[in-house]
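Task: fold both queries, return tokens.
Query 1:
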Amino acid sequence: MKNDSLEQFARSVIDEAVPSAAFEQLCVLRSAGTLEILDQIANHIAYGYSRGNWSFEDADAAINHLWAFLCSQKDFEIPPYFYSVYEAFDAGEYYHAGDRRDISPEDRYTKPLIEKILGS
């Protein structure tokens, strides 16, 4: 049930902003604080992406909505693990200076960064 709730919540924030009440409910259900839940969701998305269960577009959208939610909180802290996953998806959103256009930023940056994050 707990992993289903994490998947359900993560999928729910692909197309919309993170609802505060639902986030708080997830914290209670998983007996964890905000920072721990953000890390758990980021890990869940990263792992799902690495296994092909999440597309880049869906994972990137969900992580971006979680980032916006985090930044909207008063006196927020940025969990380092969550931030590393956020940055991995962010790096795949655009061509970086000097990049060839025949290699996708997702392949060049996101995939190896996610593999590195999950391997550590």
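Query 1 returned. Query 2:
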Amino acid sequence: MTQSRLMQRDPLPTRRELMVGGAATLGALGAAGPARAQMHGPMHGPSQPIFTLQQVCYVVDDLDAALKYWTEELKVGPFFLFEHAPLENQIFRGEPTEADVTLALGNSGAVQVELVVQHNDAPSVYKEWMDGGRRGLHHFGYMPQDYAANREHFIGLGHAPAFECTIGDSPLVYFDMLDTLGHYVEFWEDSAVYREIFRRTEEAARSWDGSDPVRPWT
């Protein structure tokens, strides 16, 4: 781990507790972080409405360099690190896979910015993107009201599910829209797991003073 990763820990439940603990664990987070939100008051969920653009993602070669640029030059942050993120039940283009990735999540206003680096050679939408010589925006992310119906709708439009997995038993899917938009589009289930991730990153950004720009998700 480089020096830029050695940041002060946030006194909130662990990533494992958040991802596995479900609603009981998430309920305990409601009172967490009043000092972080003291400038604008506490939040109880992401402020972006359902089915609006909530996330933009970039897949990068050098995560530390990307984090330095986004936090110092673009003033986006703080970013929270999901080292070797727990992406479970991975399916890439119909076949099981085990992509090992680290994610960094931070907000610019109500929109979340995701930076991703893949550590292994397992097939994935991240490796496919880089191997194709693509750079720039990798995907937009949305949270539909009805995840299952939305998934079937886009399959019906002819978009193939390129990658699917679960985080804390909550599903997500990437659709191949390379020919339509030039990148993928990701949809998440409207669940407590994802809502808490969005709430926490957005709330941290609202009162960020530039300190501790990269933080472990503990």
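Both queries returned. Flag for query 2: The longest strand covers residues 101-108.
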